[in-house]
């Protein structure tokens, strides 16, 4: 496996973790978030949150975030902008802070195996 392949696999794993966290927080199925189509508004919001968390908590570029979700960079950028705009709501902002802290504290697979 090349270094780039390993990086992409790690990015997908991080996106999967963010997707699961968003699915739990919003009460939707993680498979719905991963679906190629928009689905319900609640699922679309959870997907946008997952992209935002992947970008912010794991410090991935928008391009790498998009690739990890099977989307294009403009979709990831749009998701992040939408979520940033919603952070004016104190309850929503607190939820995102909690999710971000949770993801930042998750061990990396290399450390978890040790």
UniProtKB/TrEMBL annotation:
InterPro entries for this protein: DnaA_C, Trp_repressor/repl_initiator
Annotated Pfam families: Bac_DnaA_C
Single GO MF annotation: ATP binding
Domain Chromosomal replication initiator DnaA C-terminal: 14-83
Gene Ontology biological-process entries: DNA replication initiation; regulation of DNA replication
UniProt-recorded name of the protein: Chromosomal replication initiator DnaA
